[in-house]
Amino acid sequence: MYDWIVLWEWVEIAARWLHVITAIAWIGSSFYFIALAPGLPPPPRPPRGAHRRESAGERPGVLPNPNLASGADGEEWQVHGGGFYHIQKYLVAPASMPDHLVWFKWESYATWLSGFAMLVLVYYLGAEMFLIDPTVMELSVWQAVAISLASLAFGWVAYNTICKVFVNADQTLLMVALFVVLVGMRWFYAQVFTGRAALLHLGAFTASIMTGNVFFVIMPNQRVVVADLKAGRKPDPKYGKIAKQRSTHNNYLTLPVVFLMLSNHYPLVFATEWNWVIASLVFLMGVTIRHWFNTKHARKGNPHWTWFVTVLLFLAIAWLSTAPMRTLEGEAKLQGAALVYAAAPGFEDVVGIVQGRCSMCHAVEPGWEGIHWAPKGVVLETPAQIAHEARRIYLQAGVTYAMPPGNLSYMEPAERAAIVEWFRKAGTQDPI
After folding, report:
1. Could you read off the pLDDT of 151-204 as tens digits, one per residue?
2. 124-143 burial, b for 16+ CB within 10 Å, e for fewer?
3. Is the distance from CB of 401 to CB of 413 less than 8 angstroms?
4. CA-closest candidate to residue 115, choices 225, 15, 238
5. Are 15 and 119 in contact (CB under 8 A)?
6. What pLDDT band is residue 335 in, cutting at 50, 70 and 90?
7. Which of 401, 382, 379, 391 is nearest to 426 (CA)?
8. Residues of 216-246 as b/e, b for ≥16 C-beta within 10 angstroms?
9. Could you say which of 60, 63, 99, 132 would form a disulfide bridge with 54 (CB–CB 3.0 to 4.6 Å)?
């Protein structure tokens, strides 16, 4: 019979791969159009008399710029992949509806849907391991999942309300208000979830705002403009203005989201005492980096000061990560699936194997030279900790040879077989 745990792992891999693919598509198109928005210069005026024919005795050799008649607000020639592309920009809309119109929306939708699938697969169905930390807050699985879902919904409602209040106000003030919300949510997540889940949720919180912008604001506004063109009406520029505001926000939020989604691989980011401050500074780095790109694309100079500020912020983050890491105090509490694995035949033997082959690195104070903190924050020093990490031990050191790396601790095939046998004896009761 096929191992369902292995199959489930491949489901997670497929979802993660899809999420990465769609994210690349969304971020790529976003970066491209954000670069076009300020970067397309106005079409130049043709020289005086250029519209007249040579036969009329006027200046020869220069043809009129057709964009003047079309009403384009900017244009640019681009070359890529062996071809030339002529790009035109209209701040509101062209004079008439184009015959063929490409919508850029599915990249955002697919990215959010695949990301939410990952949230369900890893953090909701694996809540006892990845979402809940009893030392932070005693939560049942349904309570933790409910808090997660409610927080994502709250994020969009709060952000959308702020945008409506400040739609005609100073946009810098609006971004400051958004930053305050993000910092507050990061602190909140740190009070209820594991450090890893807290950072991941902040990324999901921000990504939900970004996709909400596309689904609830940008696309509906663009549909209104398209409907006006089809009906022969002059589109109202306010719809483009609002959509541009939301698109700008997405522009500045993209890089922090990418960082937060990668953070679960690095305990120095999520497992330190000041992880919520680190996350806050990451958003500031996103602003400085994107400001450099936006300024350069707008042909308004090369603000090197942004790189200096970014480096300072990154050094501050590195310094904050030297604070003591958050670790479970004493023996971890056995609950849920961990109880099943701890009671399964062969658990005592597995404890001895893991403590002998893995705990020199996966410890509060690793004993292996060059290892200064437990990889991915996983500590395997006590029976309870080992029971909580049963699935990961099975996949990393049982059915595969991923751990120990390069088999540095010389784990024997018989020891891996013992891990597999122990896990499978308890596997029939494993809640997936």
Report:
1. 999 999 999 998 887 766 667 788 888 899 999 998 999 999 988 899 999 999
2. bbbbbbbbbbeebeebebee
3. no
4. 15
5. no
6. low
7. 391
8. ebbbebbebbbebbeeeeebeeebbebbebb
9. 60
CA atoms within 13 A on the CB side of 265: 4
Output the CA torsion 417→382→374→426 (10° steps).
40
One-letter amino acid identity for 343? A
| Tokens 């791969």, located at residue | 17
Round to whole Å and give the CA distance between 134 and 137: 5
Phi, then psi, of 268 in degrees rounded to 5: -60, -20
Residue 78, beta-bridge partner list? 85
**Distance (Å) of CA 262 to CA 100, 162, 205:** 38, 28, 15
The answer to whether 130 and 197 are in contact (CB under 8 A) is: yes
0.85 exceeded by pTM: no
The number of C-alpha atoms within 13 Å of 91 and in the hemisphere containing its C-beta is: 10
Backbone angles phi, psi at 146, to 5 degrees: -65, -45
Rounded Cα distance, 202 and 248, in Å: 19
**Closest to 275 (Cα-Cα) out of 222, 333, 200:** 200
Rounded to an integer, what distance in angstroms lies between the CA atom of residue 133 and that of residue 234?
A: 57
Amino acid at position 69, single letter: A
